[in-house]
Amino acid sequence: MRHKKISKKLSKQKRKKQPELRNQAVSLILHEKIITTKVKAKLLRSVTEKLITAAKKQNLTARRKLISYLPKMGAVRKLMDEIAPRYKERTGGYTRIRKIGVRKGDGAEMAHIEFVS
């Protein structure tokens, strides 16, 4: 039963879903906007906002937490040095999801996910 389960399944097991979310988080951090399905964008938003909130603390513990989650050091550097200071005064809502239509092949709803300026 799925009573009070928050996470979406994405037709995958957790061990297969987690690396995909990590890689998408790295892509979002490095490129600052990506195109993905609407459901994946919603999952990615929760992951990314937690990472930004941790990076805003600007201490060694936060850096180590980001290093353990993100597979690329360039993403950690950009998150700590550029993105987190940009949102220093903001308490949340760092990303925006805009729907862009359906994918031609399978009819999946597509969306842009990007950082709020």
Secondary-structure blueprint:
Layout: H1 14-31, E1 33-37, H2 38-55, H3 60-69, H4 73-86, E2 95-102, E3 109-115
Helix pairs in contact: 1-2, 1-4, 2-4
Question: Outline of this structure?
Answer:
The chain has four helices and three strands.
- CATH fold annotation: 50s Ribosomal Protein L17, Chain: A
Shape, please?
globular
Q: Which CATH architecture?
A: Alpha-Beta Complex
The residue-averaged pLDDT reads 92
Number of strands: 3
Q: Care to describe what's here?
A:
The chain is α+β, with helices and mostly antiparallel strands and 117 residues long. The protein has one domain (15-115): 50s Ribosomal Protein L17, Chain: A (Alpha-Beta Complex), CATH 3.90.1030.10. It is built from 4 helices and 3 strands, in the order H-E-H-H-H-E-E. Strands 1-3-2 form a 3-stranded antiparallel beta sheet.
Protein traits:
three-stranded antiparallel sheet; alpha+beta; 50s Ribosomal Protein L17, Chain: A; globular; about 120 residues; about 50% helix
